[in-house]
Structure formats: structure tokens, C-alpha cells
Specification:
Length: about 280
């Protein structure tokens, strides 16, 4: 029997990540569209998702929460307190809360809802095409069946890693959650450099995107450490050696490490704010 037989899943907040989850769940045939409720304050957004995916739209968070065995909280951090207050007491006693709200700690959600079975997830934007990286943790009140349900939902978005300590989610926010932004900036810089060399922007973008995609695929299929792969394409006195020298001279590693550390500290700070 399916892990989701007779299960209703409600989204509180139906933005981009919620839509990515709806799409992934349907693509993996985990649920039927009618098993999912999309709650959003904008009626037109719900109608859009209903037309596109066949899910049930609503503007009533409380009614959506009452109807569901699994409630996915996918609102903006700034409206989270109001939404949690709105649905307090509406969650089924045996229900599962799955939160993808950045910086919102489990303790805050549990206290606000008076509910203990909570999974907190840090996804990233490639989940929109089924290539995401989700890092998650669960409270002890989450049953084995609910853990399997959460894992199945997240695998529909890409890869997932479950960790026991919630503090790792701040680290994941800095490394994988924010990670696509670093990659996009690197891509942008390479494309601009290509244009500076004389390529059209279209050709420069094609060269850069395929180079990065091929490099990632090659690294995934190889047993070698990235440093070994880099050495493979770095001939003594060659072009790669010269380019890498300039990157190291410019503090590339140090700047990137500092950026990720800053993102980590910001994530912790936002978590502390949500706890106040």
C-alpha cells in the first residue's frame, strides 16, 4: 500500500517552492492531485495551481490545516508568526508538520502550534527541476511512517540528507541552501569574461553552462577528489596553471569561505530572532 494512501497534504503558502513540491510529488506519482490542498491568500494563485495541477485551492489556512494529515508550512518568514497563530489548534493530533521556512527553528514552531511532530527542511532552488538538495531533521515525536513520508516527498525534489542535530540546518543554509547563488554569480562572472574576450553573450553563456554542467557530471562519476581532478587539467606552465594562480592570488578560496561563513552566521541570527 502507498505511504500516502488516504493522506491529505496541505500547503500553507503556495509560492515557488510549494509549486515545486506539488510538481515533484505528482511526477513521482506519490499522490493524486485531489489529495493536495494549496492555501494562499491570493485567490488567483490558488486557481492557477488548480488549473495547472488539479490540486484543491483555498484561501483559508485553518481549514486547510484541519483537512490534512501532513501540513507543509511554506510561507515567508515574516508572516510565519501570524500563520502559526491562525492554525494553532487546527492540526490533527496525529498530523505531521513539515516546515521549509528559512530560519524558523523547530522549538518556535512547536510552541506556537502546541504540536510536537515536526520536520524542518532546508531545500534549495534546483528543487524546481527535481535536482534539489534538501537537508532535514525530525523531532522524536515524528513516527517512522512519517519519516518515510517526509523522505519520499523530499526525494521527489532531488537528493535529501537527514541529520540528527538541527544546528546542521544553519550550516546547510549557508552551503547548499544559499549555494546556488554562489554558482550563479560564478557563472555570471565567467560569461562576462567571455564577452570581454570577444564572444557574443549567447555563445559565452553556452560555453560556460555546458562547461559547468560537464564538470559537475564528471566529478560525480569520478572517485577522485576535486583537487585531483583539478590537477589533471593543470599542466605545468600552462593556461590553467596561470589562471589558477591568479584566482589564488586574488583570495578566491578565502573570499568564498568567508561568504559561506557569513551566510551561516546570518542564518543563526535569523533563527535567534524567530525565537524571541
Amino acid at each position: 500500500m502507498s505511504k500516502f494512501a488516504d493522506v491529505t497534504l496541505s500547503f500553507l503558502g503556495s509560492g515557488v517552492m510549494a509549486e515545486a513540491m506539488i510538481s515533484g510529488i505528482l511526477n513521482e506519482d506519490l499522490m493524486e492531485p485531489a489529495q493536495m490542498i494549496a492555501s494562499d491568500p491570493r485567490e488567483e494563485r490558488g486557481q492557477e495551481l488548480a488549473k495547472r495541477y488539479g490540486v484543491r485551492p483555498t484561501t483559508d489556512n485553518r481549514e486547510a490545516a484541519k483537512a490534512a494529515e501532513i501540513v507543509i508550512v511554506s510561507v515567508k518568514p515574516q508572516v510565519l508568526p501570524a500563520v502559526l497563530g491562525e492554525v494553532r489548534g487546527a492540526i490533527k493530533p496525529e498530523g505531521l508538520i513539515l516546515s521549509i521556512v528559512a530560519g524558523a527553528r523547530i522549538g518556535v514552531i512547536a510552541e506556537s502550534l502546541g504540536h510536537a511532530a515536526i520536520v524542518r527542511v532546508m531545500p534549495n532552488t534546483p528543487a524546481q527541476i527535481g535536482e534539489g538538495m534538501s537537508v532535514w531533521t525530525a523531532t522524536s515525536a515524528v513516527s517512522d511512517e512519517q519519516r518515510l513520508q517526509a523522505q519520499s516527498i523530499l526525494r521527489a525534489l532531488g537528493e535529501e540528507v537527514c541529520l540528527d542535530d538541527e544546528d546542521y540546518l544553519d550550516m546547510a543554509t549557508a552551503l547548499s541552501g544559499t549555494g546556488p547563488a554562489y554558482v550563479f554569480l560564478f557563472m555570471e562572472a565567467m560569461i562576462d569574461a567571455g564577452v570581454h574576450l570577444g564572444f557574443s553573450r549567447r555563445i559565452a553563456q553556452q560555453l560556460v553552462l555546458q562547461t559547468i554542467r560537464g564538470s559537475v557530471d564528471f566529478a560525480r562519476q569520478s572517485v577522485a577528489h576535486p583537487a585531483e581532478l583539478r590537477n589533471m587539467v593543470t599542466s605545468p606552465g600552462g593556461t590553467s596553471a596561470e589562471a589558477l594562480y591568479q584566482l589564488e592570488k586574488g583570495g578566491f578560496r578565502t573570499v568564498l569561505s568567508r561568504a559561506i561563513w557569513a551566510a551561516y552566521q546570518k542564518s543563526k541570527y535569523l533563527g535567534e530572532l524567530s525565537s524571541e
